[in-house]
Design brief:
Elements: H1 4-13, H2 25-57, H3 62-110, H4 113-151
Length: about 160
């Protein structure tokens, strides 16, 4: 169990994580994407730290070389942990997408076939009405142009 000080530090370090269970799928997706961005930044930091420690190894005295080797190991361990964390985040994001697709499919399957048929029929009727209205407008415009031509003294075509 964590003592009071360490527990407070943990709460301060991860305040957004505590509310993950209450977050919706979209919020969780956004949170995981933020974690991915942060993990990538941490990955770059530890890679630079490891490279810096490797550079110190050449020509360093024994104490400094020992510290550099410890820094290299710590950075390598941190990088490995970050990679595993990124893999888990990726798996969670993929699972969220699968769950979303499954939920959409279940929602479609659960709909009443008669209601779906009614929606399709309404869409078809609206499309037909729009087509008829366009043709009627074109015919009226043609008749109006013909009538305007007769009124100006031009004969029928």
């Amino acid at each position: 169990m964590l003592d009071g000080d360490r527990r407070g530090d943990l709460d301060e370090a991860l305040p957004d994580v505590i509310e993950v269970k209450a977050a919706g799928a979209g919020e969780l997706d956004a949170l995981l994407n933020e974690f991915t961005t942060e993990m990538r930044a941490q990955f770059d930091l530890f890679r630079r730290l490891r490279a810096g420690a490797e550079a110190v190894l050449d020509g360093a005295d024994e104490a400094l070389a020992k510290q550099a080797r410890a820094d290299i190991k710590a950075a390598t361990d941190a990088i490995a942990l970050i990679v595993r964390t990124l893999e888990k985040i990726d798996a969670l994001l993929r699972q969220l997408e699968r769950d979303r697709v499954d939920a959409e499919e279940r929602a479609l399957e659960a709909r009443d076939p008669e209601a779906l048929r009614g929606e399709v029929e309404a869409l078809i009727a609206a499309r037909v009405e729009a087509g008829v209205a366009e043709r009627l407008d074109a015919a009226v415009a043609a008749r109006m142009a013909e009538a305007a031509g007769l009124a100006e003294g031009r004969g029928p075509p």
